[in-house]
Amino acid sequence: MEVSFGITGKDYVLLASDTSAARSIVKMKGDEDKQREVGKHLVIAYSGEPGDTVHFAEYIERNLRLYQIRAARAFDALELVEETNRMPIPARRNHVPLRPPAAAAWVRNQLATSLRSRKPYSVNLLLGGFDPTSSTPSLYWIDYLGTLGTVPYAAHGYGAYFALSTMDRWHDPEGDLEKGLELLRKCIAELETRFIVNLGGWSIRVADKDGIRRINLDGTPYEPPQPPPVPQAQAGAAEQAEATPAAVAPEVAATA
């Protein structure tokens, strides 16, 4: 019962995932974040088996970060050798961190490799990113079989049955972020009207030239919910308990 949406525009990528965590007919929580920021301009939305999704998302994040660290150290070492020997050395200067096409190809390779192992990952992904070198957004549809496709819009889960026709009708590749959010609202409204299950809230992230940020469905910045205020009576009792010195045990007092 999971849904993920991905929409590209002129200069952004928009990803949305439901926030419900359920097993069988039981809904266990309604604030699950099924997305992960794996780079400054890269974000993934995952769905599938709960253990596999979290483990594979962490695996992607740490390995992409490791590549960035190794590449940076290699650049420093080459510059040091060049300065010491006073002779030019051809440096393999790749983009650090990985650009969206390279990151998507690496993720697809990892899923294809795990598919041929004894314990394959059961994970479906939408990988969205913005390439600052070419100022172009990218969206990649990846499934648990290691299939990779570059798409202007995409959906995983039950949302694909209800929203792909809406995306096909209203998607504007040159539209701004407000048009992308309007399309997303149409897809969610279609899902709420025709899908038998209420999925609850949504986790929405945008990747553009400024990085990744989380927003609400109306485009306003997302603010995490604050804990409820402590009742005045309980707050007064807690302050009084902190101000009162602890009572001395009878045994300690008698000994003294």
TrEMBL record:
Per UniProt, subcellular location reads as: Cytoplasm; Nucleus
Any one Pfam family match given in the protein's UniProt record, by short name: Proteasome
**Top-level division of the source organism's lineage:** Eukaryota
What would be one Gene Ontology cellular-component term for the protein? nucleus
Compositional bias ranges of the Low complexity kind: 232-256
The cross-references to InterPro entries, in alphabetical order and at most eight, read: Ntn_hydrolases_N, Proteasome_alpha, Proteasome_beta2, Proteasome_bsu_CS, Proteasome_sua/b, Proteasome_suB-type
Q: Where is composition skewed (Pro residues) in this entry?
A: 222-231
Region of interest: Disordered: 216-256
Report keywords, A-Z: Cytoplasm, Nucleus, Proteasome
What PROSITE patterns does its record include?
A: PROTEASOME_BETA_1 (PS00854), PROTEASOME_BETA_2 (PS51476)
Any one GO biological process: proteasomal protein catabolic process
Quaternary context: The 26S proteasome consists of a 20S proteasome core and two 19S regulatory subunits. The 20S proteasome core is composed of 28 subunits that are arranged in four stacked rings, resulting in a barrel-shaped structure. The two end rings are each formed by seven alpha subunits, and the two central rings are each formed by seven beta subunits. The catalytic chamber with the active sites is on the inside of the barrel. Component of the proteasome complex.
Q: State the family it belongs to.
A: Belongs to the peptidase T1B family.
Q: What's this chain's function? A: Component of the proteasome, a multicatalytic proteinase complex which is characterized by its ability to cleave peptides with Arg, Phe, Tyr, Leu, and Glu adjacent to the leaving group at neutral or slightly basic pH. The proteasome has an ATP-dependent proteolytic activity.
PANTHER family in the record:
PROTEASOME SUBUNIT ALPHA/BETA (PTHR11599)
By what name is this protein known? Proteasome subunit beta
